[in-house]
């Protein structure tokens, strides 16, 4: 099973930012469910499971109404304290995990700047977040002694997933503030997304990773080029 308590996690590789790349060649990584996760259905091969949504004999299939499906598919947001520590000066810092909450795009842009990602239009960032199936965030909240109600809160991590709400999902924009890397926070973000997707019976989970973070994702159960599948890209020629 996946471990979600960062304090109890063993030492792992530092999380690096899987930033958007201008290179033509990236790894296509797919989580095929081979880790010991609680999945009730048997594992199909990658392409067969993708094709499973199509009827081979063109027969009629009765499905529930869209309104009913929408109610069942909505992920339930959650929020909890992931880590809490007290500094020598008495300042208490909590790292809060949250899913489904709003993300301030200016805070996100600041975080992207810290990890060295190229800037993207704020309007497109807002649209990407709005259209994501799930958005997970990490916030640091610092409380000084005697300053109740005057907390300092900042965004220190984020990961999001897009999905067709049925078969496939892709994880994007996994990033952690460099001053908080190496603590297992990136690992927790990805694991939480995987678990939530599997609970929704979405079994084909992919992501794109730069070469320097491939090993990090392999340690989380992802495979590069499963069954010989290669990622292919189309870029505008202008």
UniProtKB/TrEMBL annotation:
Keywords carried by this UniProt record: Acyltransferase, Signal, Transferase
InterPro entries: Acyl_CoA_acyltransferase, GNAT_dom, NSI-like
Family classification: Belongs to the acetyltransferase family.
One cellular-component annotation, GO: cytoplasm
Cited PROSITE patterns: GNAT
Domain annotation N-acetyltransferase: ranges: 95-238
SUPFAM superfamilies, sorted: Acyl-CoA N-acyltransferases (Nat)
Domain of life where this protein originates: Eukaryota
Protein name as annotated: ACETYLTRANSFERASE NSI
Gene Ontology molecular function terms on file: N-acetyltransferase activity
Family matches, as Gene3D superfamilies: 3.40.630.30
Signal peptide feature range: 1-18
